[in-house]
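Input (structure):
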């Protein structure tokens, strides 16, 4: 995706950068566009955040209903 990116600044500057990523993919971070949502970039962080928010809402509702 980096090689065919529309934004010139996101593309490889030199062939050696692309060659390195092709030869050692385990050392390369995934490429995401600037507008990628959190769920696309990091699904685990998205669901952890949602779980924490829902837990807090449930706790608040539970304490409000019991008072």
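Output (sequence):
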């Amino acid at each position: 995706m980096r090689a065919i990116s529309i934004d010139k600044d996101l593309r490889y500057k030199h062939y050696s950068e692309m060659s390195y990523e092709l030869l050692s993919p385990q050392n390369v971070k995934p490429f995401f566009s600037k507008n990628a949502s959190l769920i696309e970039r990091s699904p685990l962080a998205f669901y952890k955040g949602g779980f924490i928010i829902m837990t807090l809402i449930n706790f608040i509702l539970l304490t409000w209903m019991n008072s």
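Notes: The radius of gyration is 20 Å. The CA atoms of residues 37 and 43 lie 10 Å apart.
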